[in-house]
Amino acid sequence: MLQLLALGAIGILVVRQLYTAVYNLYFHPLASFPGPKLWIAFPVLRYISQCRGIFDQQMVKYHERYGEVVRFDDVSLSFTTAQAWKDIYGYGHGQHQWPKPEFRPPGSTDHILFSNDANHARFRKGLSHAFSDQALRKQEHLIKDYVDMLVTALHGEAESGKQVDMTMWYNLTTFDIISDLAFGEPSNCLKNKEYGEFITRIFKFFPIVPFVALARFYPLVWRLISLFIGGRVAKARMDLFQMGHDAVTKRKNDTSKNGRGDFMESLLKYSDNKEKITDAELAGNAHILFLAGSETTATLLAGVTFWMLRTPGTMKKAVEEVRSAFDKEQEITFSSASTKLPYMLACLEEGLRMYPPVPTVLIRTTTEAATVSGYTVPKGTQLGVHQMSTYWSPANFHEADVFHPERWLPSAVDDADSPFYNDNRDARQPFSVGPRNCIGKNLAFSEMRQILARVLWNFDLEMVDKDLDWPNQKAYTVWQKGPLVCSIKLRKDLL
Ligand code: HEM
């Protein structure tokens, strides 16, 4: 009898799955949009692809096959056009943004990245001081101190003839900078030449993030998986949160640190005068700022260094530019690096295209029927621009698979004879657009220019593994980037 009941239950499940698959493929309001049939019929496969870190690479292939709009599960569409940025994320005159799905793991605190629009506005206002031009000027000396430490450490490595992993060195630097701005003290990465416990936990946490999305949409599948890893996920999250919380409490109580223009000062100032930001929200925001502001910047620096080393002509040009623009290293400041180095800046722009630090699709949901990039989209559709597919598309960029910094120089933008004249530059928005775009964009550019210029000023780098397959990496919202091992020499005329 029990066996019969079990068989009956399994039968009902199978029939239900088949019914849903047929409905998804042929009768769903999105049925006319092209996409991978298996993912549309069985959406759990898309989440599994994310858990395996291969979702973004697969999306590039699907866009190549199906074109500028791809249906990538039952309810989701991905676009690769400039117009889609405007229509989805509310960028430009008269545009409004579609809301972010409220995506917060159970038990976690609200913060700027995953909050609803009302809380988001409160947090964004609370942080606005910390990202103003005035704050950036205050932060410059703090950031410079860490770049000095990086350069000194690399001098030591160069003198001892060691090979260096530039991915690690960039990460050590940006983790220290953002830790100081978010928590009021460095994570001592550069001092100890290692990531330390907090950051090692963060690296371990990134691959777990897609499992949290899986849990949200498939509680049953999640229950099965959590038999094996559930405890580990919960513990990783709690440990990370507790460490962040302790650091924030310490910074909050240390009033001697006020006046340095850091993130906490901005939040506390706002919190005192206006709507209260609770201690848990302070910790949640500090935590997310730390994650959002460190890994992304280091990723771009590693990516651009890889591409410049892979195309030695670009590296040579950028090095010559930096070394001829300044008489002394001390002249490299936020301001001079942003005005005197057009070619190096173009390398950073092209790095953001070839290796966007957030390569994936940032999901929004339509709350009514809408026109997106010329397509009619029903209410309740989850949609976004898939960054990697957009930036690597030959429909948007001439020789899209080649690192060409020239495409960002004024000569290419203005000269109709340039092969890059018709590049669709507005399709590339690595910091996203609209009211929920990256609040740290200016800080990120200041950091990246300063760090790259100082590295190029001082050192000659050479990639050790000439065949390194850098673009073929896994990604879990951010890249799972590997080591970038280089031989490093102090430039000859400094010896
Ligand atoms: C190259 C470096 C960076 C890139 C490419 C980047 C990219 C992005 C993107 C694409 C978003 C939108 C996320 C979404 O819609 O879910 C975002 C949001 C955000 N970023 Fe960045 N980011 C970078 C550096 C930074 C830095 C240095 C900070 C400073 C701490 C920062 C803080 C944030 C915050 C707080 C948000 C949420 C903003 C909001 O929801 O209002 N980012 N970033």
From TrEMBL:
Q: Which cofactor does it need?
A: heme
The record's GO molecular-function terms, alphabetically, read: heme binding; iron ion binding; monooxygenase activity; oxidoreductase activity, acting on paired donors, with incorporation or reduction of molecular oxygen
KW Heme (keyword) present: yes
Q: Which PROSITE patterns match?
A: CYTOCHROME_P450 (PS00086)
Q: Mind listing the UniProt keywords for this protein, alphabetically?
A: Heme, Iron, Metal-binding, Monooxygenase, Oxidoreductase
Query: One Pfam family this chain carries?
Result: p450
Record-listed heme binding positions: 438
Looking up CDD domains in the UniProt record yields: CYP60B-like
Matching entries from InterPro entries are given as: Cyt_P450, Cyt_P450_CS, Cyt_P450_E_grp-IV, Cyt_P450_sf, Cytochrome_P450_monoxygenase
Family per record: Belongs to the cytochrome P450 family.
State the protein's name. Answer: Cytochrome P450
